[in-house]
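Re: beginner question about structure tokens

> Can someone show what the tokenized structure looks like for a real chain? I only ever see the sequence side.

Sure, here's an example I had lying around. Input first:
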Amino acid sequence: MNRFRYVYVLQSLSHPNQVYTGITADLKQRLAEHNAGRVPHTSKFIPREIRAATAFKSKERAVAFERYLKSGSGRAFLHRHL
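And the corresponding structure tokens:
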């Protein structure tokens, strides 16, 4: 069975300007890992909440979308729409 991949954007509750974009197959578990401090890149600004998530059936499309969101124009897109 083809699992969905989720591209997600987290925002720090203590530092709202801190956002993180990632990809996962299990959104609930991944958020728990971030908020438990098990992800070094996000552990400094916990707790975090999901601001946006998009589901993809294709892993390749999910990876491409995540890469876009991490680019300069993708960050500008997030800034305008979040």
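Each token stands for a local structural state, so reading them left to right follows the chain. The chain has one domain: 5-72.
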